[in-house]
Amino acid sequence: MEAAIASTGSGLLRSSPKPPARQQRSARVVGFASQPQPRAVRCKRSTHPAARACAAAARAGAMGGSVGMERKRLAVFVSGGGSNFRAIHDAALGGKVNADVVALVTDKPGCGGAEHARGNGVPVVVFPKSKSAPAGVSTDELLNTLRELRVDFILLAGYLKLIPVELVQAYPRSILNIHPSLLPAFGGKGYYGLKVHKAVIASGARKTGAKLTNCSLQGK
């Protein structure tokens, strides 16, 4: 049983040090040439549990994890070359985030992301099982594997399959999706990877960006 994903906004938290006051600039509004530029808004710190956990992990990572906070355990889902997965994995290895990538889940066992994971000792789980991926696991087997690996957060980094209801229920407010556009623009069926960037360029849009969203069941 599968369910479509409904998303709620979540800030993308980074662990870079705060620049000197003289280097600070007002945030530029990201939009499109055909749309009026809204006034700048003041953003409040998110109270979302996942955002708080990521912020704490980022702070601990910036200090080399010396505060004694437990490192979060991440499972990254990919379907392609895995550029986001590589960046996440490198950040974890380099101590930029207080987390470890403990699994890569993919529907394409021969994709670049899976090959990079194998080459770096990251376990690869194939999901779902299909004619093109007969070695894939069932939803129950996937859940059991993630539990055995003690996964805290799931990161959807270019994963092109729908997420089963059971997975969303097992990881409430702990599944984050990375999309290479400012949703709802250039989102939906067929918009992924380089196709998004090509569509942005073809549209004549002057500005674009990426969005990190928290995934939940529709209506929840």
UniProtKB/TrEMBL annotation:
One of its GO terms (molecular function) is phosphoribosylglycinamide formyltransferase activity. It is an enzyme of class 2 (transferase). This is phosphoribosylglycinamide formyltransferase 1. Pathway: Purine metabolism; IMP biosynthesis via de novo pathway; N(2)-formyl-N(1)-(5-phospho-D-ribosyl)glycinamide from N(1)-(5-phospho-D-ribosyl)glycinamide (10-formyl THF route): step 1/1. Keywords: Purine biosynthesis, Transferase. Its EC number is 2.1.2.2. GO terms for biological process: 'de novo' IMP biosynthetic process. Residues 1-34 are annotated as: Disordered. It comes from the Eukaryota. Signal peptide: none annotated. It comes from Oryza meyeriana var. granulata. InterPro entries: Formyl_transf_N, Formyl_transf_N_sf. GO terms for cellular component: chloroplast. Pfam families: Formyl_trans_N (PF00551). Residues 72-210 form the Formyl transferase N-terminal domain.
